[in-house]
Specification:
The chain has 308 residues and is an alpha/beta fold. Helix content is 32%, strand content 24%. It starts with 11 loop residues before the first helix and ends with a strand.
Amino acid sequence: MLTQFALRFETPAALAAALQRHIRTYPAALGRHNGRWVLRLPGRPPYPWRAPRLRIRLRRTPPGSNLGEVAETAVLDYVLDRSGPTVFYDIGASSGYFAHIAAMRPDAIIGVHAFDLSPTDLGAIERTAAALHLKGITIHQTGMGRSDLGMRDIWVSRTRMFDHQPTDAEMREPWPIRAKLALTGNAAKLAPIRHRVHLDSIDAFAARNPPAPGLIKMDIDGYEAEALPGGMQTFRSAHPVLMVEIHRARFYRRFGTGRPDFLRPLFALGYTALFLENRTRHKTVHVIPVGPDDPRLSREQTDFLVFV
């Protein structure tokens, strides 16, 4: 099985080369608008830039041209331009960057479903959408897993989610995250917060809310190992393009799996995976077709994959 998007190319290598050219030449830039930093993207109004400002504070310099999410943004536009999905799932939407970017396209009408567990983040998505006069974004305080479990109490810390009141040892974040939050004055964000949320699955949500997605972006700090198995029926029948951020091994140990293992069912469905090497420097990014046994899938690093 290949997505209609992938079938336009004779080989995965040809698709990878075309996508690499697009990312390297993608015209994204930071600038000032009404006294604020904004991101300028093709065909869109200025977008408020909310990337971490620690480097600017320490060095007293403006941000450079290598923005961390430009490669992923270029991938999003490439898929939207060439496959024209009518429904986009932003799973792990956070402040809604990708949901907003998809909805800001003036030449395409797309229904955007933004999923996140944090009411603070969901509120930020709504406020930015209202400020930019964006339509078509529906927010959901929902966590995606293997099945629809209904409404549940959960506890969410910076990078972890618990279905019980966590102990001090369980909630302790890795030291780089603790240091970063302390330096930026956000140490209070280390404490887990209790939420009442809907624990759902991609398959159950898609069945209740047709049409099925044509594009899914997923960045949920290791929970993709649970969310992807809950979408196999949708992947098999609708063949959406998947943009997935994968994390270090420690994020998956709680689920008894590893980085290559939870991705194997996607390969078994016939998906081709494109690996973005050096993605945080989009002008020199390498897009590489990879198989289920490629050593890049086992390395200890945060990476980004596109399944087509």
